[in-house]
Design brief:
6-stranded mixed β-sheet, 204 residues, alpha/beta, 8 strands, globular, single chain, Nucleotidyltransferase, domain 5, RNase_H-like
Length: 204
């Protein structure tokens, strides 16, 4: 038996194939990105910092964590800062972290956060319009040259989990807190996972 295919019978097959190709391309674009916290070099201290704001300019808090080349917890901090935007919270978290850098005499410091806009402002010396933001940025730009070596990088939130957790803790605090040598219970597992090089997948 001979079966003849007309143009009309081929079109649905072509459409099906085109749809499958589109789905395949979409899945490639949505492929997960592996993210892991990275240890600093020997002799360096790494600060991961984060800010949190509930709403456009709601209740805000900051947090950060310092670790050495062995991924050992050195110091953590968290604080509620009243009402502020997420941008102000992020820059306030970095500023507070740098104040602690000076207090502890660390000279070779790696600063890492998950808010790329702020990282670009610091690294590329970009201008900011907000007077409050400018005050924080000016203080940061005064502190960084005081350090022997300083590296500033962006990391996805999945690689900034310890700082994010400390910033969340900050929402619950009545006054600023600093933890030395031993992290708060809520951060212990994250610190251990980071030290072991745990990879967290980031979905695009």
């Amino acid at each position: 038996m001979i079966v003849a295919f007309s143009a009309n019978t081929l079109r649905p097959c072509q459409r099906l194939m085109q749809n499958q190709v589109r789905l395949l391309l979409r899945s490639w674009h949505k492929e997960a990105i592996p993210v892991a916290w990275e240890k600093p070099e020997v002799g360096w201290t790494k600060l991961n910092f984060d800010g949190s704001s509930k709403g456009k300019a709601g209740k805000a808090s900051i947090g950060g964590v310092f670790r050495n080349h062995k991924a050992e917890f050195l110091l953590g901090y968290a604080e509620s800062i009243g009402t502020a935007s997420s941008t102000i919270a992020e820059v306030a978290a970095l500023r507070r972290g740098l104040e602690l850098v000076l207090e502890n005499g660390w000279n070779d410091v790696w600063l890492e956060g998950d808010y790329k806009t702020l990282i670009d402002i610091i690294v590329k010396r970009r201008q900011v319009k907000s007077a409050e933001m400018q005050r924080h940025v000016s203080d940061i730009n005064l502190i960084i040259p005081e350090l022997k070596n300083c590296r500033v990088t962006h990391v996805y939130r999945e690689g900034n989990r310890a700082a994010d957790k400390l910033a969340q803790i900050g929402h619950r605090l009545d006054k600023p807190r600093v933890w030395r040598h031993t992290p708060p219970d809520e951060v212990v597992d994250i610190v251990h996972e980071d030290a072991e090089g745990k990879v967290v997948l980031r979905r695009r």
